[in-house]
Design brief:
By secondary structure, the protein is mainly alpha-helical. The protein has nine helices and no strands. The protein has one domain: Orthogonal Bundle (Tetracycline Repressor, domain 2). About 75% of the residues lie in helices and about 0% in strands. The chain is elongated.
Length: about 190
């Protein structure tokens, strides 16, 4: 293996991530990756036999970055809501993760099972971070309460970021509403 090959492969993945993020899966072609990465088409194809394989490698990179981003976010000095919003802020702060959601929601008909599997792993990683926080609460929530909190957060935080690119996690009204929801869930018997 050539000495520069791993860094070229990484460079190609980084370039593809930028393109996937900007124009989606369907809007990205190998030719665009070649031009943007300033490499030859044989170089791309010697590392990735198809766009789908390149996409899988990009998803794997996003998954690895997400693991790093979420590691050690549990901060006992913050309230549960502050920790909840911190996890969401970190999650929504990565344009590549948001692109994955847009692609998997809007272009799923183009995806193979491997893509769905990697996406499920990505979502499971995020759920694990949220579940870890919830497990540390003084009063445990029921599965139904956890579902309501996650569904409300996803609708209030993820969806607006996907479609309007607005970071609602800093909105004082939203924070107050999530605080009220979390408090009501914690106070129920």
């Amino acid at each position: 293996m050539a000495r520069g090959r791993p860094s070229k492969k990484s460079h190609i993945i980084d370039t593809a991530l930028t393109l996937f993020s900007r124009v989606g899966y369907q809007g990205t072609s190998i030719d665009q990756v070649v031009v943007a990465a300033k490499v030859s088409k044989p170089t791309v194809y010697s590392n990735f036999s198809s766009k789908q394989i390149l996409w899988h490698q990009a998803l794997t990179r996003i998954l690895e970055n997400a693991e790093t981003d979420l590691a050690g976010l549990n901060d006992q000095t913050k309230s549960p809501l502050q920790q909840w919003l911190t996890i969401w802020n970190v999650w929504l702060g990565d344009k590549n993760r948001l692109a994955v959601y847009r692609i998997m929601l809007g272009e799923s008909h183009k995806m193979e099972e491997t893509s769905f599997s990697l996406f499920k792993q990505l979502e499971a990683l995020f759920d694990k971070a949220l579940d870890s926080l919830l497990a540390g609460l003084d009063k445990p929530l029921s599965p139904a309460q956890i579902y309501v909190l996650k569904a409300t957060s996803k609708e209030a935080l993820l969806m607006p970021n996907l479609y309007a690119s607005q970071a609602l996690t800093q909105d004082a009204n939203l924070s107050a509403e999530l605080t009220a929801l979390l408090n009501s869930l914690l106070s129920q018997d």
